[in-house]
Amino acid sequence: MPNARVLRDIKARNVVKASEVLRRAYLYVARNETLSPQVRHQAQLQLNTFGKYTRPTTVKNRCAESGRGRGIISEFALCRYQFRLKALKLELPGVRKASW
Amino acid sequence: MAAAAAAIRPMRLAALTRSRCSIFQTAYNPTSARTGAKYLRARLRGPSMVKYYTPEANIAQIMRQWPELEMRNFAEEERLQDVEDKKKRGKGAPKKAKEKGDSRRASRRR
């Protein structure tokens, strides 16, 4: 069972994907200076009604094992300690100790 | 050839830009007004965001999708057995409180 924060992040990602096109459309209208200010304001108000999980800023890369939010290596979706543990057990393909 | 070809009239330059844009089908924006086109032009990030976490293998899901495989969920069976054992010992889950005063928390206050 993954971490609670990871579950929340998964939910955010799904919601962002579902609402992305709509959000972009409203954003286009709200930021278009060639349109009248009333229309732009309306679009901005509509954008404000969107929930927090529709915003891509709520999405954060987390460690899939521990749920840690910092020190994440995105390629493996692991935090640095989990990455180290798995790499030493040779569970990560193509990863080996560096020496040069 | 003449050195007096110093300044080409701005109208001609604007006409040139306009025709160039119509030929190459680009947007004509001489004043650089902000049209919000950048929000439409940018690529969608949703699909790549969703792919970050690998989906975990779920025995219950596999059992639902392919019932012909006749798989058994041992962890779930063990959990149900534990619940039955607890009930036999009298340690099962307590009854759900119907009214507000019935719950254990409310009776503890007194």
UniProtKB/TrEMBL annotation, chain A:
One of its GO terms (molecular function) is structural constituent of ribosome. Keywords: Ribonucleoprotein, Ribosomal protein. GO terms for biological process: translation. InterPro entries: Ribosomal_uS14, Ribosomal_uS14_CS. It comes from the Eukaryota. Coiled coil: none annotated. This is Ribosomal protein S14.
UniProtKB/TrEMBL annotation, chain B:
One of its GO terms (cellular component) is ribosome. Residues 88-98 have a biased composition (Basic residues). Coiled coil: none annotated. InterPro entries: Ribosomal_mS33 (IPR013219). The keyword Ribonucleoprotein applies. It comes from the Eukaryota. Signal peptide: none annotated. It is found in: Mitochondrion. Residues 78-87, 99-110 have a biased composition (Basic and acidic residues). Keywords: Mitochondrion, Ribonucleoprotein, Ribosomal protein. Residues 78-110 are annotated as: Disordered. Belongs to the mitochondrion-specific ribosomal protein mS33 family. This is Small ribosomal subunit protein mS33. It comes from Suillus placidus.
